[in-house]
Automatic annotation (TrEMBL):
This is Transcription factor. Its main location: nucleus. InterPro entries: WRKY_dom, WRKY_dom_sf, WRKY_plant. Residues 98-117 have a biased composition (Basic and acidic residues). GO terms for cellular component: nucleus. It comes from the Eukaryota. Keywords: DNA-binding, Nucleus, Transcription, Transcription regulation. Residues 136-193 form the WRKY domain.
Length: 317
DNA sequence: AAGATTTGACCGCT
DNA sequence: AGCGGTCAAATCTT
């Protein structure tokens, strides 16, 4: 990979660029919010598209910048970045689609120590975290572990997709009660669902049962096209790109999260243009630069109106 | 009986 | 060394 920013000289410059871009995008997000309020059935569409393009432009730039940051870091710094950014091309060590144990297991695993624990950590997997009142997210999960966590009063539970072995779905999540507020859970999703979860998790999120209710009455500005395709069918289409092939109509994550900001804005927040509230009931943060097309189902029904999203841009800096 | 959960063991990573 | 993620046998639930 090529190095776009010489590390020593341009590090601060790079940060500045990113900061400015982030800021600019936030402004565009706010503008978008303003535009969509007095929405005329026909009038504001082009303006919205314009703003969406601005947003996308920022997002793309950020994406390029940040991915080059990955390229720069060929050292320990890499891990830190990798937590936050998608690594192009999956780590070869974790591409197993189906757990090798499930079949074969021909090796002598009984006699001596079994092979439990011999796995590759999925460090480069995209992760995102929410704080919510429910752990239910319309996906079928199978609990596979629980751990006491240091300095944490509540244990952390580990779940994998029930389709892991059937379909090689690699999605996992971790759930932990919040110490300060035991009614709430921190839920960390790791990896995307690549399964067709027909039983519990309809990937298709219908408009009426999700965003409408989520957004409230006057949040009719349902995402479309690049702008924000959350919950719309185009997301489902993107399941055709389960890995990292580039989907021309792909959303970048940041675009995606920007749209969640919109939801926050158009939700229960009074006209104030607060993008990320520190005291939000629900914080949403994301790592990874891929679109979240596999998992919109999780947002569909459980983000109650008091919840907020937060895309933590500071992770990029 | 099959699927889900529990729980101690195992092991990668820092 | 020890934390945390995963495994898998035992147990529970449906």
């Amino acid at each position: 990979m090529s190095i776009l920013f010489p590390r020593s000289s341009s590090a601060t410059k790079r940060k500045r660029v990113i900061r400015e871009l982030v800021q600019g995008r936030d402004y565009a997000t706010q503008l978008k919010f303003l535009l969509q309020k007095p929405i005329g059935p026909d009038g504001s569409v082009s303006a919205k598209e314009l703003v969406a393009n601005v947003l996308r432009s920022f997002t793309e730039t950020l994406s390029v910048l940040t991915s080059s940051e990955v390229a720069i870091s060929g050292d320990h710094h890499r891990d830190e970045v990798a937590q936050n950014l998608v690594i192009s091309g999956e780590d070869a060590s974790q591409v197993e689609s189906i757990d090798p144990r499930s079949e074969g297991s021909t090796e002598s695993k009984k006699g001596s120590k079994d092979r439990r624990g011999s796995y590759k950590r999925r460090k480069t997997e995209q992760t995102w975290t929410i704080v919510a009142q429910t752990t239910d997210d319309n996906h079928a999960w199978r609990k596979y572990g629980q751990k006491e966590i240091l300095n944490s009063q509540f244990p952390r539970s580990y779940f994998r997709c029930t389709r892991k072995f059937e379909q090689g779905c690699r999605a996992t999540k971790q759930v932990q009660r919040i110490q300060e507020n035991p009614d709430m859970y921190t839920i960390t999703y790791i990896g995307f669902h690549t399964c067709k979860d027909t039983l519990k998790a309809p990937q298709m999120v219908t408009h009426s049962e999700t965003w409408d209710s989520f957004l409230g009455p006057d949040a009719n500005d349902v995402p479309n096209e690049h702008d924000s395709t959350i919950g719309s069918q185009s997301l489902i289409v993107k399941q055709e790109y389960p890995n990292d092939e580039t989907d021309p109509s792909d959303l970048t994550d940041a675009n995606f999260w920007s749209d969640f900001k919109d939801f926050e804005l158009s939700n229960d927040k009074p006209a104030g243009l607060k993008i990320a509230s520190e005291n939000a009931d629900t914080v949403y943060s994301c790592t990874g630069s891929r679109s979240l097309d596999m998992d919109f189902g999780i947002f569909s029904s459980h983000f109650c109106s008091t919840e907020d999203f937060h895309f933590d841009e500071s992770q990029l800096l």
